[in-house]
């Protein structure tokens, strides 16, 4: 092990923060780390919006499902897929393709992971806010996002005011395959993991519940997931060609 791996393995989502601000030097290092992430074809097809207006923060917290930490964190960063900049450089650019959308989403996630790891290395904590996509059109309007710019997710950052228990991940044998995909699910191994997750949820210090991982996934995937998203993407110029 080394300090970098130790930091990665110690990851926890932080949703409660102290009032201590993030310094300008810390924020500069976090943003520099984000921009140092790999970029497919060097397109650099992302933008980050630092939201400092507290009224806007409150509005975004509501749109994300009334997540108070969006307004309470020391910093809130919005990660966006952005081809508007490219369109200004190349007015006849061929945009709106699924592959471009995937690049924007993947590269945005790489940037955000770099940002969070940098923050954690400075003693800070954070949590990603996918709930931003609950109301993507309203979020876009609030942030003034033009065509070919879409909000992917937010990132709360600050000084942790909690040390939550670490959530167990899937057994490696269910995730890592060798040479070929193993289509047959190891159900006994999954059953043991379900028991582990159920025990975790019952024992953790906050938001206790009785639920296995399989039942959680069944609840999520047993209904439509943001069915408005395709129409929103098309309205922003991603025609899914």
Automatic annotation (TrEMBL):
Q: Which residues form the Nitroreductase domain?
A: 9-159
MF-aspect GO terms? FMN reductase (NADPH) activity
Which leading EC class covers this enzyme? oxidoreductase
Q: Does the keyword Calcium apply?
A: no
Q: Which UniProt keywords apply?
A: Flavoprotein, FMN, NADP, Oxidoreductase
Gene3D superfamilies the record matches: NADH Oxidase
Q: What is its EC number?
A: 1.5.1.38
Keyword Oxidoreductase on this protein? Answer: yes
Task: State the similarity comment.
Answer: Belongs to the flavin oxidoreductase frp family.
| Xref: NCBIfam families | PRK10765.1 (NF008033)
Q: What is this protein called?
A: Oxygen-insensitive NADPH nitroreductase
Upper taxonomic lineage: Bacteria, Pseudomonadati, Pseudomonadota, Gammaproteobacteria, Aeromonadales
> What is the name of the gene encoding this protein?
nfsA
């Amino acid at each position: 092990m080394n300090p970098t791996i130790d930091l990665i393995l110690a990851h926890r989502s932080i949703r409660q923060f102290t009032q201590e601000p993030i310094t300008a030097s810390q924020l500069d290092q976090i943003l520099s780390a984000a921009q140092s992430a790999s970029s497919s074809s060097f397109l650099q097809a992302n933008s980050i919006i630092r939201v400092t207006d507290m009224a806007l923060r409150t509005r975004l917290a509501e749109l994300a499902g009334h997540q108070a930490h969006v307004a309470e964190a020391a910093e809130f960063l919005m990660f966006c897929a952005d081809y508007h900049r490219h369109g200004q450089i190349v007015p006849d650019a061929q945009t709106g393709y699924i592959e471009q959308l995937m690049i924007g989403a993947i590269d945005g996630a790489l940037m955000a992971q770099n940002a969070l790891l940098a923050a954690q290395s400075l003693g800070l904590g954070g949590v990603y806010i996918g709930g931003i996509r609950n109301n993507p059109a309203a979020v876009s309007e609030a942030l003034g996002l033009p065509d070919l710019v879409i909000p992917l997710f937010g990132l709360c950052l600050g000084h942790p005011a909690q040390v939550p228990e670490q959530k167990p991940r899937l057994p490696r044998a269910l995730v890592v395959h060798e040479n070929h995909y193993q289509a047959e699910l190891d159900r006994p191994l999954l059953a043991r993991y379900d028991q582990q997750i159920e025990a975790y949820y019952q024992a953790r210090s906050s938001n206790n519940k009785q639920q296995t991982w399989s039942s959680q996934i069944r609840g999520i995937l047993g209904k439509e997931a943001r069915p408005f998203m395709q129409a929103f993407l098309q309205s922003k110029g991603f025609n899914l060609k």
